[in-house]
Amino acid sequence: MKVLIIEDEKIAANNLEKMLRQIDKNINIQGKIDTIEGAVKWLNNNKTDLIFLDIHLADGLCFKIFEQIKVKTPIIFTTAYDQYAIKAFKVNSIDYLLKPIEIKELEQSINKFKEQNQLQKAKEIDFNSLIDSFIKKTEYQERFIVRYGQKIKSIKANDIAYFYVKSENVFLCTKGNINYPVDFSLDKLENIINPKEFFRINRQFIVNFNAIENMYPLSKSRIKIELKPQTDCETIVSYSRLSDFKKWLNH
Predict the structure, then answer these.
(1) Which of 77, 105, 109, 211 is the S-S candidate for 161 at Cβ 3.0 to 4.6 Å?
(2) CATH code: domain of residue 175
(3) Are 217 and 186 in a shared domain?
(4) What's the predicted TM-score (pTM) here?
């Protein structure tokens, strides 16, 4: 079975590949692509049996792929969106996996694909209907699924004080000062969280307005923020974001 992975998070793509090989050693991973442009180019010149497709890619929503080319290949969406988006996928008979992906759920999706593939040939998906359903139902991420130990937990966005990068990994810190790893880059988080509540102050932090305890002017072009819960990292609004930050505070 030939498989294409379209996912802009390198760690998530590598983990998915690893789990697929554990499930079936005969699965051939043809490629891992992280952009809409790359996906369109690849699909125009290659064929595959199954596509794993993330909703948010490095250069936009994955649905833009289907505006440029017709896709008849079965697709399993990988998404961090909650039930409102999942319902849209179900209506269109498309399977999905909620991040962080569990190997048991992945295996069930693979088995479902194999069963359906034996019964009928792949048919073209009504992506226009899917896009309409997704756009109508999706606003901003309201919950984040996180994994701690052998358990999975759902964290409400308004319970998150800030997101931050540490040792090249991204974490969220709750208002109760509990930290969890998340399967998103800060660039991606900027596109899916409510911009009225969260702001990216620099390359390392996205902060919730309610988590700002104090602010101190360091100069005309720099502001230091004191967060609650406190962090050992330096939280200074970068020069390039200062103007937008001030507008955000007054929004």
Answers:
(1) 211
(2) 2.40.50.1020
(3) yes
(4) 0.57
